[in-house]
Amino acid sequence: MGTVSCGTDGQFEVNLTDGPLEYVDVPAKLVGVPDIFALFVAGDSMAGVWAPGDTVYVSRKRPVTPGSYAVVLVEMGQGEQPAAYLKEYVGGDNQRITLRQYNPQTEKVIERARVKEMWRALHWRELL
User: Fold this and answer.
1) Which of 13-22, 32-41, 96-105 shows the lowest mean pLDDT across its residues?
2) Is the Cβ–Cβ distance between 116 and 80 less than 8 Å?
3) Single pTM value for the model
4) Are 39 and 31 in contact (CB under 8 A)?
5) Which domain, by its residues, includes 97?
6) Peptide bond into 66 cis (omega under 30)
7) Residue 12 — very low, low, confident or very high, per pLDDT cuts 50/70/90?
8) 106: closest CA among 127, 87, 128, 83?
9) In this structure, what CATH number is given to the domain that contains residue 80?
10) How many domains are contained in the chain?
11) Residue 12 to residue 20: CA distance in whole angstroms
12) How far apart are CA 99 and CA 9, in angstroms?
């Protein structure tokens, strides 16, 4: 389990080492499902969906589609740790993607070439 900071910009750092930092219980629907990991929410930019202290389950296999939530790793520069965001995926094309946060409500446009990874953040309704 890692930490996701949903602050003003919503940027956080992802643990890119070879092992988990901590283990958490998973909902019954995710037992045995491969390529799932969890993040701990430490900010409020996604208030209304996730609050500080919530656990977010992330799938590396489920597709990210418009209206779904995503963890997006963004290349920052040579030798720098990628920035990461937990946001609603609005949509994208070959040139850019658009992400939305709720507190404060704003959209962030990111050049597609800078997107290193994009994973589906599972909303609680997907876990029932």
Assistant:
1) 13-22
2) no
3) 0.86
4) no
5) 2-127
6) no
7) low
8) 87
9) 2.10.109.10
10) 1
11) 17
12) 11
